[in-house]
Amino acid sequence: MTTQTTSQAPTTRGTPVTFDHVNKRFGRTQVLHDICLEVPGGQTTCVVGPSGSGKSTLLRCTNRLEEPDEGRVLLGDTDVTDRSADIDAVRARIGMVFQTFNLFPYRTALDNITLALRRVRKLPAEEAAERARTHLASVGLAGLEHRRPGQLSGGQQQRVAIARALAMEPEVMLFDEATSALDPELVKGVLSIMRDLAGQGMTMIVVTHEMRFAQEAAGQVVFLDHGRLIEKAGPDKFFGAPESPRLQAFLSAVT
Ligand code: ADP
Ligand code: MG
């Protein structure tokens, strides 16, 4: 799917993601308990919850950075958890953005983006560079393509990471606390790019502590606690009329 603001047909429905009775243990610790969740295509699903509640693990089950012990994860019609699934093909359909950017420190912003385009997508150098420039411009970084990560602010680095993921033209974007490592004044710029992306109909699963972002950009918000999906609702209900005492307590602590 394209991420250009102008070329996105409003009728496009993105790829849905389905978690079907997902269980995950690390040793004897069960970190995901029977998670069932529909992530509708073309919408943003925000996942919130206390530290250690299993948010990252859930996200990582989507592209099999973690393998569920039981249950299935579907990307569209593809069973990601099927042992015979072509995992490289699955990962090529999913972009992921981490708290810590994970850029190559000795490569320029441009090279960080062209690398996978050339190696994985097999684009010729010029075409890869052209696409990278387009995506850098779309996250407000035109002109900074030759800087290395160390010569960019945290917010700019995260925007390079987002541009890198988008340049691969994924069907689904995963964000794991993408703004948690940023200085407060840099958070806004990254969130506004994520908000634009949500508005363009990208399927997104966003683990975040930014409750205002969830309120404004999410189609649904999910609360995890101790590896259980406790509550799921549209943002108005989730924040305005939370049902479970645990979610009520969480929200009054963080908002
Ligand atoms: P969150 O992202 O909500 O903070 P995580 O998904 O990172 O939570 O972790 C959930 C639980 O699983 C935590 O108790 C954490 O310590 C544990 N955990 C996460 N990854 C591993 C791992 N690779 N090995 C063992 N335990 C892990
Ligand atoms: Mg986490």
UniProtKB/TrEMBL annotation:
Q: Which Gene3D superfamilies match?
A: P-loop containing nucleotide triphosphate hydrolases (3.40.50.300)
Nucleotide-binding in keyword set: yes
Cite the ABC transporter domain residue spans from the record. 17-251
Keywords, A to Z, come to:
ATP-binding, Nucleotide-binding, Transport
Q: Which residues are in coiled coils? A: none
Source domain of life is Bacteria
Q: Which InterPro entries match?
A: AAA+_ATPase, ABC_ATPase_HisP-typ, ABC_transporter-like_ATP-bd, ABC_transporter-like_CS, MetN_ABC_transporter-like, P-loop_NTPase
Q: Does the keyword Transport apply?
A: yes
Please give one Gene Ontology molecular function term for this protein: ATP binding
The family database entries (PANTHER family) matched by this protein are listed as: AMINO ACID IMPORT ATP-BINDING PROTEIN, PHOSPHONATES IMPORT ATP-BINDING PROTEIN PHNC
The text of the family note is: Belongs to the ABC transporter superfamily.
Tell me the protein's name.
Peptide ABC transporter ATP-binding protein
Its lineage opens with: Bacteria, Bacillati, Actinomycetota, Actinomycetes, Streptosporangiales
